[in-house]
Amino acid sequence: TPLRSQDMLSAMADAIDRVQRVVADGGWPNIPGTRMIRPGDEDERVPMVRRVLVLWGDMRPQGGFRSLVLDGETEAGVRRFQSRHGLRVSGRVDRPTLQALNVPPVARLAQLQMNYNRIRDLLALKLDDRYVLVNVPGFQAEAVARNVVEERHRVIAGKPDRQTPVVTATIRNLNFFPYWRVPESIANLDVI
């Protein structure tokens, strides 16, 4: 599904509704520690992981969350969560996954609302049937043709203190091995 689509806007609205309910009910638990939890591992944090996954809709509730083992159903929920959050899909609760699980619901709600507005604004743009969209905060570029993502790649652009500007332009040609000199600002602020 392209980022710039009504389907994505609807999915964002659903996520906003879900997180608003979670915030109203008091949020989700903070999962302590940094130690990885692998499928089959027994760990006292597994019930907390399950609770967050249920609240996100990545797995169905299990009777009381009594087991401390990361079972197959929980692993599948972790995989869904990782996929939806742009993480490496491994089924393990690793450091990046723990960090994403521990984002406070109020902060996650603010992110969702901001991105909902961005996608709504993107939908208002008049674009051709074929376009390239660079999602700077998501570190992705996608080439879209007739509302189908043909290619999606990881990209690096900008930093929080020097943000990449919003640009809308027509691509007239593409140079695959261009000569490029490192700008002084990047050399001084990033390389040196």
What does this structure look like?
This protein is globular. The model has no long low-confidence stretch (mean pLDDT 88). The chain has a 3-stranded antiparallel sheet with strand order 1-2-3, with no helix packed on it. A hairpin with a 2-residue loop joins strand 2 and strand 3. The protein has helices at residues 6-24, 46-56, 72-84, 95-101, 105-124, 184-191, and strands at 130-135, 140-145, 148-154. The chain is built from 6 helices and 3 strands, in the order αααααβββα. It has 192 residues and is mainly α.
Key structural traits:
192 residues; mainly alpha; 3 strands
Number of strands: 3
| Number of distinct helices | 6
* Main sheet attributes: strand count, strand direction, barrel closure: 3 strands, antiparallel
Oligomer type: single chain
Radius of gyration: 20 Å
How far is it from the N-terminal to the C-terminal residue, by CA? 40 Å
User: Low-confidence parts lasting 5 or more residues at pLDDT below 50?
Assistant: none
Helix content: 40-55%
- Can you give the mean pLDDT? 88
